Amino acid sequence: xxxxxxxxxxxxxxxxxxxxxxxxxxxxxxxxxxxxxxxxxxxxxxxxxxxxxxxxxxxxxxxxxxxxxxxxxxxxxxxxxxxxxxxxxxxxxx
Length: 94
What we know:
By secondary structure, the protein is an all-alpha fold. It has three helices and no strands.
């Protein structure tokens, strides 16, 4: 196995693992709209980190495709959860 192939395999494993880690929470939150036990700061900071990694992946070009795509998906999931949490905590109760 060449170094490039190994790099790509590791990238795909990391991407799939992270995406599959975020999607269940995002889907559950969208279905139930329950966010009582979710820490607001967690998903805000995750979204900010994801945006930074997307920028880094974009700047790396072809070599950063895993970084960019993975963090695009996880950032969208984090922002959805963050938005629902904000709505539930600050707008729904008003």
